[in-house]
Amino acid sequence: MTPIRTRIGRGGRGRLSARILASQLVILALTGVIGFLLFAFAQRSALDRTYEERAVAIAKTTAADPQIRRAMQEGGSDVVQAVAERIRQSSGASYVVVIDLHGIRHSHPMPQLVGSPVTEPVVARDGQPHVGTDQGATGRSANGKVPLYGPTGTLVGEVSVGIPEHDVLGELWRELPTFAVYATIATALGSVAAFLLARRLKRITFGLELEEIAGLLQDREAMLHGIREGVLAFAPNGRITVVNDEARRLLGLGTALGSTLAEVLPDGRLRRALDGTLTGTDISVLTDEHCLVVNRMPVTLRGRELGAVVTVRDRTELVGLLRELDSVRGLTDALRAQQHEFTNRLHTLAGLLDIGAYDDAYELAVESAGAGQALTESVRRRIGNPLMVGLVVAKTTVAAERGVRVVLDDDSALGEDPPHLRRLLTIAGNLLDNAIDAAGDGPVPPQGRVVGIRLTEDTEGTTVRVADTGPGIPPGAGESIFEDGWSTRPERGTARRGLGLALVHRLVSRHGGTITVSEGPGAVFTVRLPLPDPLAERFTKVLPVGGDR
């Protein structure tokens, strides 16, 4: 079977991958810049805290100096100014200011401000250190304030220390290049990953643009659910990826997406036809309600296996009509042959009348008129139902034209309204067709080409037994003959071979009956149907009569 090879236009080649790559590069650049800025602010805050803690440490060192403590308690601004300036210069602080409890400065890097009050309150009265950012006379600084105690432990003021802002910024600028290198490396790696991802997406989507993919999806949904054929698609691993409404109806599937056939269908010919075990085209499969034609085609795209597509067509009505047509054609051929026979007899009768042999003409007319009536009466004595009588008489007439004699067993006994009437017509018709075909071909046996049928009913059910003098069933084929499509004969007319016995087997099994067959020369089929369930009988569907082996 030739695989389906799909070709897709490349009108927009490269555009999708380029768009994806460009979008990802823009995202990477934006996230890199945002990350860099966030890191800078976070690092600035961390450096501020570090320098504020450093300012507190310098302030604590100043507040612990014994000269300053004694001078602040006993008086002596010159000593405080000298010691504070020495500490400021050695620590690199922008200012070291000692303030008394009245807010008067006793030291300052600008001597003219010594003795002047500060504008903010003395916060160290609570005995705790304080940090923050100060916009003072020396500029913006990271500030730390601690309480100042005299030698006797009395709170006498506070020490305020500031570290210039340019020191904090300088430290920040020294750290940012390292992070910029990291951000650049991360952006470059992200760009490579984006390029590889874009190439992979391009390969997965077969170069289709996003708009084309959306259009294909819409077209697929409209097509799948609008056609009157069942469609299934399988991934390379055998799982169902697509199933339309018609396939669900014909196959009796529920939510089958993502499942394997083994999970949704029992083992049988239908599953083997769907999974590719059965090869060929137009594989006929019988279900309980439908006669289906299954075709499976593998799908490849640019040398890559994508799975398979299966189409399922409902041929129930068509097959039934074709089988009826084939039966009617057989009956027509038989009637045409009988017409020739009766025409010859009429010519003979006319000749006898012309020569005046009236007695011989009378005997010939009586004989011709009673031959067909005798057959019908013989069947009616054993079978009371007119439909079954008509079937047996018709099959007998058709068989006679092929040199086969149909014999109704003397033990046959069927009433006017037998149970399973429609099923019996289908079963008997199929079995008789198969038997006539088998007996009518090949060499003539000593006893002649004969098909025997026996129809009986009792208090437990109905039995149909059909035997023929044909070649019979091959050894070992007793089970496989009931599978859809099994046949030992070529196609005949318009009817498909291999459905009659499968149909009989399904009818019998569905209604709790049994069917047996003998192997070897001269096949004998025996069907036993129990009494029907009145409620189930109301909803039974039966395909038209017609058979094949």
TrEMBL record:
Its EC number is 2.7.13.3. Its main location: membrane. InterPro entries: 2C_sensor_his_kinase, HATPase_C_sf, HATPase_dom, His_kinase_dom, PAS, PAS-like_dom_sf, PAS_fold, sCache_3. Keywords: ATP-binding, Cell membrane, Kinase, Membrane, Nucleotide-binding, Phosphoprotein, Transferase, Transmembrane, Transmembrane helix, Two-component regulatory system. Residues 423-533 form the Histidine kinase domain. GO terms for biological process: regulation of DNA-templated transcription. It comes from the Bacteria. Pfam families: HATPase_c, PAS, sCache_3_2. GO terms for cellular component: plasma membrane. It catalyses: ATP + protein L-histidine = ADP + protein N-phospho-L-histidine. The chain crosses the membrane at residues 21-42. It is found in: Cell membrane. GO terms for molecular function: ATP binding; phosphorelay sensor kinase activity. PANTHER family: SENSOR PROTEIN CREC. This is histidine kinase. It comes from Streptomyces roseochromogenus subsp. oscitans DS 12.976.
